Amino acid sequence: MKTITHYLTLLIISLVVNTITAQDKNLDSTKIAYKAAKIEALINSKKTVEEKEKEYLKQDIEAINMQLENGEITPEKAEQLKQEAAKKRALNIQNRLAIIDNQIALWERSDKTHQVDIEKNGSVSVSIGSKGIDIDLGPQPEGYKVKYDIRTSNELLFAIGFNNTIADGRGLEDSPYKLGGSGFVELGWLWETRLLKESNFLRLNYGFSFQWNKLNPKDDKYFVQNEDLTTLETFPIDLKKSEFRVTNLVFPVHLEIGPSRRWEKSDRVRFNTDDKFTLGIGGYGGFRLGTQQKLKFEDNGDRVKQKTKRNFNTSNLVYGLSGYVGVGDVALYVKYDLNPLFKDQENDQNNISLGLRFNID
């Protein structure tokens, strides 16, 4: 269980670090490339401006000559109109080139670590919000539209904490399992759907997850299966380690409430629950994937590690109640199996877990 926990923790940390590093690198490279392309496009547009204005001047002169040929204006008036047209086009070129030069200067002064300019054509959009960095590269396909309202999102679930059982007539204080050594890990994928049209206060959280529930018996105890009966018995020699683990696949569903931060743009609306109170109440159902007992001891000076994989009469169907309360993506998490840990026993015992829950999006 400790090995699994260590590997899962390292995996989560590696994913977060790699994601942040990749986002930073991609953001810088995107900004640098876009900045260079933008400056080059502006420089090329200066030549286009001159060519277009000269073409417009040519059309103006042709129209004036047509008026002169039709006798609509005198030669003196035609010459005056041509001079005015030439002056107008020259000023247009001067003003438009000045605007482009100012844009080039603005781009050249911009620090690449600052936010890239967000343009109306959707060619590049880089926004930095409370949930990280969002890069939208384009140009988008013709007819593409940003979805105005996204009501369902998804996230990674990781939970870890203490695990034990509650039995008929026995509380945790009389548990035969170590309180500190027994633990659980849960890893899954969740979806979250907003239930109200204009508010994110009420949400449905659902998905699937793998549970590893571990019990460490005290006083050199270990589980023994005698046909349909599973009992805790004393091992004949001192145990260095006694670990009993049940692996489940479950499908949790929680009704979640809590305030959100709402932000709107002309083409979209989004809700954010970062640093906001969250309360979830619900349950889960699924089935057992496997059961394993691990024993470590010394026998005549030899170190022995013994693994036994069998059902130990553990329940095949798993179902229970769960809930969490927290702030943002971190919450205090509790789950309780309504099904007994072992089937058809004289005294039922039910698994209970308490720990921290992390929603990683």
Report what the structure shows.
The chain has 361 residues and is α+β, with helices and mostly antiparallel strands. It has two domains: 23-113; 151-360. It has helices at residues 2-69, 75-109, and strands at residues 124-129, 132-137, 152-167, 183-194, 202-215, 221-226, 229-234, 239-257, 261-264, 269-272, 277-299, 302-309, 317-327, 330-337, 349-360. The strands form four sheets. Strands 3-4-5-8-11-13-14-15 form an eight-stranded antiparallel beta barrel. A two-stranded antiparallel ribbon has the order 1-2. A two-stranded antiparallel ribbon has the order 6-7. A hairpin with a 4-residue loop joins strand 9 (261-264) and strand 10. The longest helix is centred in the first third of the chain and has 68 residues, at 2-69. The chain is rod-shaped.
Quick structural summary:
The chain has 361 residues and is α+β, with helices and mostly antiparallel strands.
List keywords for this structure.
single chain, 2 domains, 8-stranded antiparallel β-barrel, 2 helices, 29% helix, two-stranded antiparallel sheet
List the helices and strands and how they pair.
Blueprint: H1 2-69, H2 75-109, E1 124-129, E2 132-137, E3 152-167, E4 183-194, E5 202-215, E6 221-226, E7 229-234, E8 239-257, E9 261-264, E10 269-272, E11 277-299, E12 302-309, E13 317-327, E14 330-337, E15 349-360
Antiparallel strand pairs: 1-2, 3-4, 3-15, 4-5, 5-8, 6-7, 8-11, 9-10, 11-12, 11-13, 13-14, 14-15
Helix pairs in contact: 1-2
